[in-house]
Amino acid sequence: MDMHRITLSVGLGAVAALAVAMPAAAQAPTGAAEREAMIQSALSAAPPTLRDTVRVADWNGNTLREGPAGFTCLPAPPGLAGPMCVDEVWMGWIQAWSKREPFRPSRVGFAYMMAGDSATGGASNIDPFATTPTASNDWMVEGPHVMILTPDTASLDAVGPHHHGGGPYVMWAGTPYAHVMVPVGPRPEQRSTSATR
């Protein structure tokens, strides 16, 4: 089996594994209009250099649009984060996160979320498995950003988890899923916490 097929099968496995953790509403598209909407959602995460050629998949691992090995764009899952384009390292991260397994990247990995988080999405900055904002879980709805994985945990310590200054910060610091968030655009309005609803 050639390297392209190995990479593609690992990537599909990671996306399929994540489907188990995603809500039912994030399942495969049923019609042409829904399929096109998912593709457009996914592509909104891509930088212009990837948009015309990148592979697009849904959260079940179904290919919505073919593309070369390297990056895969995924539509926004309901209620969590937003659409994203991830490389193979991030595909491994997704698989580990979805199964709550340990993860350490073998090399630097990149992911793009150029549309930012969905208005109904976002994520806790401290709890990798939180699904809603609370008064204590530091929920963030981030604007356009790039995410970086690194095997060098000392470099994560140097960046730190503080996001209020608007510069790069570490999300999920101290966990196997820690990564650097690099904001590249304005933040949208933040979601209210369950304590204030």
User: What Rg do the Cα atoms give?
Assistant: 16 Å
- The chain-level structural class is alpha+beta
The largest β sheet comes out as: 8 strands, mixed
Mean residue pLDDT:
84
Uncertain residue ranges: 1-26
Q: From N to C, what is the helix and strand string?
A: HHHEEEEHEEEEHEE
Main β-sheet, spatial strand arrangement: 2-1-3-4-5-8-10-9
Beta-strand content bin:
15-25%
Categorize the overall geometry: globular
The strand count comes to 10
What is the percent of helical residues?
A: 25-40%
Distance between the terminal alpha carbons, to the nearest Å? 53 Å
Give an overview in words.
- With about 200 residues, the chain is an alpha+beta fold.
- It contains five helices and ten strands.
- The protein has helices at about 5-20, 30-45, 50, 90-100, 155-160; strands at about 55, 65, 70-75, 85, 110-115, 125, 140, 145-150, 170, 180-185.
- The strands form two sheets. Strands 2-1-3-4-5-8-10-9 form an eight-stranded mixed β-sheet. A two-stranded antiparallel sheet has the order 6-7.
- The longest helix has 17 residues, at about 5-20.
- It starts with a helix and ends in a 14-residue tail after the last strand.
- About 35% of the residues are buried.
